[in-house]
Amino acid sequence: MTSTVEMRLELIHVPVSDVDRARDFYVEKCGWQLLTDHVQMNDMRIVQICPPGSGCAILLGRNIPEISDMPVGVQKGLHLVVANMDEAVADLSGRGVELGEVQDLGGVLYCRFEDPDGNSWLLQQWAEGGFPHE
């Protein structure tokens, strides 16, 4: 019998035009945790943030080989699974984040928002609340 090697997704890149503006949006407006913000090798900027409760951090950066070649605003529909859509919407809107309308797609709720560069996020609440992997 063969086993599968565990592979955890722990970092994704979100391409932005202004690292400071994006960091401030995610940390100050969305309330996400700033994990690191530093410059290395003269002008390579690494900013990592993490949504509350997530095991996957977000990389915002400048002059990162290959990664910084991605066009700005191309990440679309990144999912943030929440246990309670009403609470998540109230939290973000209370912080000044502009959100779309909550949509019910067969018992699964979605609500969209964008960062200043047009990268889009979807809050998702599974039917019956809760998370599908618990």
Automatic annotation (TrEMBL):
This is VOC family protein. It comes from Sinomonas cellulolyticus. InterPro entries: Glyas_Bleomycin-R_OHBP_Dase, Glyas_Fos-R_dOase_dom, VOC_core. PANTHER family: GLYOXALASE/BLEOMYCIN RESISTANCE PROTEIN/DIOXYGENASE, GLYOXALASE_BLEOMYCIN RESISTANCE PROTEIN_DIOXYGENASE. Transmembrane segments: none annotated. Pfam families: Glyoxalase. It comes from the Bacteria. Residues 8-126 form the VOC domain. The lineage of its organism: Bacteria, Bacillati, Actinomycetota, Actinomycetes, Micrococcales. SUPFAM superfamilies: Glyoxalase/Bleomycin resistance protein/Dihydroxybiphenyl dioxygenase.
